[in-house]
Each structure stands twice: as structure tokens, then as C-alpha cells.
Specification:
Layout (H helix, E strand, L loop, with lengths): L4 H9 L11 H11 L3 E4 L7 E6 L7 E7 L20 E2 L2 E3 L7 H17 L5 E7 L10 H11 L5 E4 L11 E3 L1 E2 L1 E10 L3 E2 L9 H13 L14 E8 L7 E2 L2 E10 L5 H19 L2 E3 L2 E5 L2 E2 L4 H14 L4 E3 L7 H4 L5 E3 L13 E3 H19 L1
Parallel strand pairs: 3-6, 3-7, 7-19, 8-18
Antiparallel strand pairs: 1-2, 2-6, 4-5, 5-20, 9-17, 10-14, 10-15, 10-16, 11-13, 12-14
Helix pairs in contact: 1-3, 3-9, 5-6, 7-9
């Protein structure tokens, strides 16, 4: 490795890029990539920092893209950390710091692999890095902004690999070929306040709300599909803010989150819930507003040449044939999938978002070798 991914990881961790701050991370990467011949463009939107870097011709018939983020979640209680969260200390072969797992080291790994590849064996095609500072935040002006800009400018990736942590326990054991969709309902039920002893003079919104939640959870949404586990619907809060035991409240609220597979769409699930809410509202006279928010649709990149290429590279460098999974939460792959085929492979995610986030150095080196092999084999 000519470009040291461990040193680059440490330099990135030392940048305090807590969402939405850039913290110097993208400036650092732009300097490295520009020096290696990449054309770099800052694609900031609404104060969110983003970097697009391309080596090779614009509009190349064959282009390989990496996507990742340099923003990190807050450190939490700094006093609870064993090491400086932005110190990138290395102790007994382990690097400590916020972003060590999620995912500054993966960005360092694919940047190092890309720089060495285009320097040593210039490919017939383009290598693209699309890096955002807004994955841990709202996600409205990060990868979405990069993809919008790419479309407007005629820039394109043929395929893309997202470097999120994908391995549960051992390096190489899992890659992601898709993700479940995520939909939240912020439900509000409004009735008529009254005395608990005179319910005929009130309309209790809690009864209607509980009825709705009961119907939503009465039956499984599905039993899984070829590439996905069964969809999951979880009630995450119920609240009416009522301190009195003898008052029927006027309003009640609840939040429901659904992680859904490819048997559904977000709009289909909204229509399903709206039908139940309308029925209960007609029965009870309670006004019910669902206020849905779709943060991502489900998607899958079916096994084929691209998936096989990544899987074989992972096995060659780690000795493990990765499980092809769609488990976990959401990632920016949910945006990239509308642009080109996308998969995810990265580090073991055991300590991501935790106090004392850390990663063994040999995982950074292994990940860099995987990315380098993918590039070589893709352009071979």
C-alpha cells in the first residue's frame, strides 16, 4: 500500500466532523485526491458539506463508484471515554476514536485504494468517490445532493459500493445487497375532553388510538420474501400528557415505525394504515391524523456479476465467503439504488456509535486490500 490507510484514518478521526460540521475532513480528502489527479468538486447544499471526486473521463463507459461519509455522531459523555474521542490513539494494534468504525476508516480505505490504483495501473474508465458530511444527520442534503448534482452535470457511476460497516463479528462475514424500507407514522388522535365519570359527554381519543394500534399489530405484515426477513412494525411511544386520573384527555399521540421488505412500498403501507384509521374515525368520531414519513424504500441488488465480484474479492482477502444480507437499518445506499446498482461492504460494526468506538488496525488494512482487489478485478 503506497497510500497509508491507517495514517489517513487517524488524520480523518482527528477532524471533529460531528454532523453538520465539516471539521476539515473533506478538505483533507480533497487535497489527497486532487494530488493524485482526481477532479474534485465541492457539492455543498444548504450548508451541508459534500465532495465529488472523479479520476478519468467524464461520461466514461465504465465507472466504479465509492460512497461514504465523514460526519460522525456526537461523542456523548466525553468523560466516559477511555481515550480522546478525536485523538485517534493507537494502543495494542487498535485505533480509538469517533468514526473509527462508522465510517472514517472505510473512507480512508477506499480513498487509499483508489489513489494507489489509478496511480499504479490507470484504468480504462473512471473511478468516482462521492463523500458526504450528512449521513448521520437528516440526510436531505448529503448523498441526495451529490446524486442530484451528478444528474444535472451528466456524471454517472456504473456501479457503486457503500463502505458502511456490514460485518457483525468477523471481518468478511457479511455484505449487504439491499436494505429494508423505513416508514414512521406520527399519529395524532383528537377527541373531546371530559370528566372520566361522565364519558358520554366526552370522546376519548386514547380508545380510538389503542384500537388503531391493536389492528396494526394484530397480524404480521408478511412472512418474508426471497431476500428479506419478515417486515417489522413496532410501536415506539404512546403519550397523552395527562397528569389527572379523572380526566379524559382531548388528544393522544403515538409513533409507529415499520421496517418493510420488498413485498411492500411506503405508499402501499400508508394506504393500508389510512384505511384502518378512516374506519375507526367513522366508528368513534375521533379525528385521526397519521402524518407518515418515508425515510427510504426497500431495495435489493440481485446476485449477479457485480455482487459476485464483490463477494469473491471479500473471500479472497479475508478467507470468508460473505453472507448476502439485507438486514440492519437504513444507509445512503437507499438513495444510490435509484442511480445505479449498489452493494455495501465494510468493517465489523461492533462499536459504532458507542463510547470508546475503536477498530483493529488489521481490519483497516484488510478492507483496503478488498477495495483494491475489487477495483483491479472490475477494470480487468
Amino acid at each position: 500500500m503506497t497510500t497509508d490507510p491507517i495514517r489517513l484514518s487517524a488524520d480523518l478521526i482527528r477532524c471533529p466532523s460531528v454532523t453538520p460540521e465539516e471539521g476539515g475532513a473533506l478538505v483533507l480528502l480533497e487535497g489527497l485526491l486532487s494530488g493524485a489527479g482526481f477532479t474534485c468538486t465541492r457539492v455543498d447544499r444548504n450548508g451541508t458539506p459534500n465532495l465529488y471526486a472523479r479520476w478519468g473521463a467524464k461520461g466514461a463507459a465504465k465507472s466504479f463508484g465509492f460512497n461514504g461519509h465523514t460526519d460522525v455522531v456526537p461523542v456523548g459523555d466525553a468523560a466516559a471515554w477511555t481515550r480522546d474521542p478525536f485523538g485517534a490513539e493507537i494502543v495494542d494494534g487498535v485505533m480509538w476514536g469517533r468514526g473509527a468504525t462508522d465510517m472514517k476508516t472505510a473512507v480512508a480505505a477506499f480513498a487509499a485504494a483508489a489513489v494507489d490504483f489509478v496511480t499504479e495501473t490507470p484504468p480504462d474508465g473512471a473511478v468516482i468517490l462521492a463523500i458526504t458530511g450528512d449521513e448521520e444527520g437528516p440526510g436531505r442534503d448529503g448523498t441526495r445532493a451529490l446524486l442530484d448534482w451528478m444528474k444535472a452535470e451528466g456524471e454517472a457511476m456504473s456501479v457503486c459500493l457503500v463502505g458502511e460497516p456490514t460485518c457483525p463479528n468477523e471481518m468478511g462475514e457479511m455484505m449487504k445487497i439491499g436494505r429494508r424500507g423505513s416508514l414512521s407514522f406520527y399519529i395524532e388522535a383528537e377527541g373531546v375532553q371530559g370528566h372520566a365519570a361522565y364519558p358520554h359527554r366526552a370522546k376519548n381519543p386514547l380508545h380510538a388510538l389503542v384500537d388503531l394500534l391493536g389492528r396494526m399489530t394484530a397480524e404480521p405484515l408478511d412472512h418474508g420474501t426471497d431476500h428479506f426477513q419478515p417486515s417489522s412494525l413496532q410501536i415506539t411511544t404512546i403519550d397523552c400528557g395527562n397528569p389527572a386520573n379523572n380526566v379524559i384527555p382531548a388528544k393522544a399521540r403515538a409513533t409507529v415505525n415499520i421496517r418493510f421488505n420488498d413485498a411492500h412500498t411506503g405508499e402501499g403501507l400508508i394506504a393500508w394504515a389510512e384505511a384502518m384509521a378512516s374506519e375507526i374515525a367513522a366508528e368513534t368520531g375521533i379525528r385521526i391524523a397519521l402524518n407518515p414519513d418515508i425515510s427510504g424504500e426497500s431495495f435489493v441488488t440481485p446476485p449477479g456479476p457485480f455482487v459476485d465480484l464483490v463477494a469473491k474479492s471479500v473471500e479472497a482477502e479475508t478467507g470468508r465467503a460473505p453472507e448476502l444480507s439485507t438486514s440492519g437499518g437504513t444507509s445512503d445506499a437507499r438513495f444510490v439504488k435509484d442511480h445505479c446498482p449498489v452493494v455495501e461492504f465494510g468493517l465489523v460494526g461492533a462499536t459504532m456509535h458507542q463510547v470508546d468506538e475503536r477498530v483493529p488496525l488489521d481490519q483497516i488494512e484488510a478492507l483496503t486490500r478488498v477495495y483494491a482487489r475489487i477495483l483491479r478485478d472490475y477494470f480487468a
